[in-house]
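sry for the spam today, last one i promise. struct tokens for design, 413 residues
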């Protein structure tokens, strides 16, 4: 029979709405659902028990209603955090308008099956490249502020902070406490990670938790957390459990630490070790500098020991002495040449004097000159024809001259 029309003029009553919803839901039939148990309300006096089954990766849950006898028949008691698979039929209670799964079977997810699923996820993320060393970010050499995600008041928190501050007292922390096991772990850790990743003062993020069972550490192998860590821009260090523990977070994080204490040691350098390295470097540099100075000093001594530098003026002195010797030789040669030429001139002068008119006059000879009547200069008389009778004559002798007149002129016999 078709449902009556639903219009503003013919609205359904609440009961009708609930009956319709109940019919739609119950047509789904039985379903197999996997999740994590929480809020287990069981009492032996109750006919029915009520549980909450939550999604392991999202903040979503569904109510379970199951016979108490079913829960008592299980081989191990149920507890919060158990991973289970249930078989149930969607049920809607029209009286109070609530939805639940009417549960007829509950199976614990075995440890082997959990580990197999973890390994399957590990292979899937590895194939996507989330484990690739090339994508892992380098940790800062000396972080100023460290983001720490861990349980409130946990030993992991105390260990990380105390060890880090012992190694480098100036290091700062921004701590966000979250659940570290149970259903709220994954969303709380993701939210804290995103907060710290947005903080520009945080240089590196440590996710730390102490040891525990495989079931306790399951949240740190959930896919949603791995993808959040891979998407973070800030380097992330995984410090979950102890050395044998290996959640998937260890593979995705930029650095895997064996323990929370190891994480502090890997993230923060030891101030004493760094000071020792600085002192050693100073000593090496000082030794290298002293060696260089000694080498340069020896080279300078070798250069200074060379004659030209031992007495820089020696080449000048040697050249001065050569010049002095050359000047003496030149002066000697010039004097010799001068004396020789002077002697030669004297000899020539003596020859000239001996052959000259003055010397002839000294021996008693004289020079007769005729004074022409036309007023021209006197002429030496070399022929009788130059001085006819009456000519005026000037006779030069050794100590003067005599003026005379020609009385007669005749040729030689």
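last one done:
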């Amino acid at each position: 029979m078709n449902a009556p029309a639903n219009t503003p003029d013919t609205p359904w009553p609440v009961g009708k709405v609930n009956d319709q919803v109940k019919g739609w839901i119950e047509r789904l039939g039985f379903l197999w659902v996997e999740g994590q148990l929480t809020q287990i309300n069981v009492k032996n006096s109750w006919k029915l028990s009520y549980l909450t089954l939550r999604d392991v990766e999202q903040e979503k849950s569904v109510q379970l209603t199951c016979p108490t006898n079913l829960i008592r028949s299980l081989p191990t008691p149920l507890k919060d955090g158990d991973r289970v698979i249930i078989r149930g039929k969607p049920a809607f209670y029209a009286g109070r308008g609530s939805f639940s799964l009417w549960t007829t079977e509950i199976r614990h997810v075995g440890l082997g099956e959990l580990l197999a699923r973890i390994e399957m996820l590990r292979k899937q993320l590895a194939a996507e490249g989330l484990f690739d060393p090339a994508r892992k970010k380098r940790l800062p050499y000396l972080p100023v502020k460290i983001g720490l995600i861990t349980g409130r008041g946990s030993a992991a928190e105390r260990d990380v902070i105390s060890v880090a501050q012992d190694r480098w007292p100036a290091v700062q922390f921004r701590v966000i406490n979250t659940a570290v096991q149970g259903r709220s772990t994954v969303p709380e850790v993701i939210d804290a990670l995103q907060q710290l990743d947005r903080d520009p003062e945080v240089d590196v993020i440590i996710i730390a938790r102490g040891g525990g069972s495989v079931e306790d550490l399951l949240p740190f192998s959930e896919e949603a957390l791995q993808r959040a860590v891979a998407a973070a821009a800030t380097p992330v260090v995984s410090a979950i459990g102890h050395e044998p523990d290996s959640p998937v977070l260890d593979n995705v994080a930029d650095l895997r630490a064996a323990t929370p204490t190891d994480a502090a040691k890997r993230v923060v350098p030891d101030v004493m070790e760094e000071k020792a390295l600085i002192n050693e470097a100073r000593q090496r540099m000082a030794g290298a500098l002293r060696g260089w100075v000694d080498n340069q000093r020896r080279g300078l001594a070798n250069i200074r020991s060379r004659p030209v530098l031992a007495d820089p003026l020696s080449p000048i002195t040697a050249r001065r002495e050569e010049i002095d010797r050359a000047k003496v030789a030149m002066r000697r040669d010039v004097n010799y040449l001068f004396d020789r030429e002077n002697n030669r001139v004297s000899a020539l002068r003596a020859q000239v004097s001996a052959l000259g008119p003055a010397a002839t006059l000294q021996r008693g000879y004289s020079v007769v000159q005729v004074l022409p009547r036309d007023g021209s200069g006197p002429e030496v008389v070399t022929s009788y024809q130059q001085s006819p009778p009456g000519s005026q004559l000037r006779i030069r002798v050794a100590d003067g001259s005599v003026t005379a007149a020609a009385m007669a002129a005749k040729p030689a016999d």
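The first strand starts at residue 31 and ends at 41. ok im logging off now
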